[in-house]
Amino acid sequence: MTAAPPPDDPDRLRAEAREHLRGGRVVPALLTFNRLIERMAAGAADFRLIGETLSAVGEHAQAVSAFEQSLALDDWPPEVHHGLGQALYRLGETDRAASHLRVAAERGGAFVSMLALASILPGCPAAGHEEVLRVRRELTAWLAAGRGGSPLPPRPPRPPPRERIRVGYLSSWFPAANYMKPVYGLLNAHDRRAVEVHLFSDAPPDAPFPGYRPGLGDRVHPVAGFENDAVAEAVRLAGIDVLVDLNGASSPGRLGLFLSPCAPVVLAWFNQYATSGLPGIDGIVGDGEVVRPEEERFYSERVFRLPLSYLTFEVTHPAPPVAPPPAATGGPLRFGSLVSAYKLTDPTLDLWAEVLSAAPGSRLVLANSALGKECNRLRLADRFASRGIGAERLSMLGPAPHREFLAYYDRIDVALDASPYNGGTTTMEALWQGVPVLSYCGDRWAGRTTASIARRSPAAEFVRGDAKDLVAFAGALAADPATPARLAALRRTLRTDLARSSACDTASLARAMESLYRLALADPAWPGR
């Protein structure tokens, strides 16, 4: 009879850890892997599995260490480079993330790595417009190859002129009222005498649309689970004149829908902040703030600029009342940001460290889902420490239900924006909670979204010309004894004044979009005409 292996036999520990994972027992699995590591018996494949497990539970900092250990033992596997790239991205270390995703895509030929790279590049500090366009066109080629040569549906013919144009909106996120502020603002303000609204929803069929007020003749088309060709057929059968993609890269499974135009006119709006690179999208909708004329050559689409912020919004979800700024009760000025951790890039931390240095004694309040994990907080604290900012000046908060999360703004005097990937929803919510957002115009669309919104708000003076101007402005705020009273006065009226400003003029947004749709349908030079 063969003797059973001892309890600490590496193969036995390895098998035990995998059995725990198959049963969904993450903590026992990791503890078992730790025993393997303690015995110096863990190999590259073990560290890879540890990294994937840690990533799945949000322990991104620990996952980075595990993936790096795996690559130290075997630098080749593309899957490990992919996992490391994803973990680094979720911590805001985006340029390093992109380099590993490139390796993964080149070595493994995996669509998922090319998709991840194409998705994150617009927010990577080192990536320029030309690289974003090139990589997104490469992704389009991968999508086309995935069809295996099957023919693409042809563009539907142009309809004859009619009084009510049929406009379809495609999104996976209609139930997310906090996220869909500009979308619901547009839908609710559409003139139903001019526009027949169709929503193509990838959300579960029974999901509520809490910020949407249906108009006469509106139709909802549930398309969750449909193949892309079936969605194209649904759009055709509905007789849609203009289809507007609201997803961008947020719904990767729908990118293949736009390998060819599935409506007479196809536009991208709301969740696009760079070119799509997709031949089935005719135009992209921004404004004069976010896309400069000299940048149009880096867009595969025709660029349209609205005469107001393309993110003009309406708040339809419950929000806590505006509280007085912390500075009003004494103490140091409190800067803060509630942007997602993947926006905490090195230039962002460089800038914020300069702000804190220019404002001695000030504090920085940060909150996002990644900061719910201690090791993620420690890694971020180390990144600040390398810039001369001690942990005693930082307050890091984890996730919370949305209303409670918004209440974090009660602890912040002035919000700081991220760079080169600004807040969008975060900027809207900060302003709605009475907190001005300190930002500047960056070098790309993603770095100008806050300027697009805030320059049309009562807090426009907090949008500065450049990073140097921003730091000087922050230092002056902190040094001025009148700042607490100034911020308190702004806070008392900001929500009311914001609702009356052009940043929330959704009726004008609707008129501008309706004019754009008619222009595109009538333009003899439009593709497919």
Description:
This protein is α/β, with parallel strands linked by helices and 529 residues long. The chain has three domains: 43-145, Alpha Horseshoe (Serine Threonine Protein Phosphatase 5, Tetratricopeptide repeat); 165-312 and 508-522, Rossmann fold (3-Layer(aba) Sandwich); 326-503, 3-Layer(aba) Sandwich (Rossmann fold), CATH 3.40.50.2000. Helix content is 41%, strand content 11%. The protein contains 18 helices and 13 strands. Helix 11 runs parallel beside helix 16 (467-479).
Number of strands: 13
Average pLDDT figure: 96
CATH structural architecture of the largest domain: 3-Layer(aba) Sandwich
Shape: globular
Nearest-angstrom radius of gyration?
A: 25 Å
- What share of the residues lie within helices? 40-55%
Helix segment count? 18
Strand content: 5-15%
What name does CATH use for the topology of the largest domain? Rossmann fold
Number of domains: 3
**What is the CATH class name of the largest domain?**
Alpha Beta
CATH superfamily of the largest domain: Glycogen Phosphorylase B
Low-pLDDT runs: none
Main sheet, how many strands, which sense, barrel?
Answer: 7 strands, parallel
Strand order of the largest sheet: 3-2-1-4-5-6-7
Distance between the termini: 81 Å
Query: Class by helix and strand content?
Result: alpha/beta
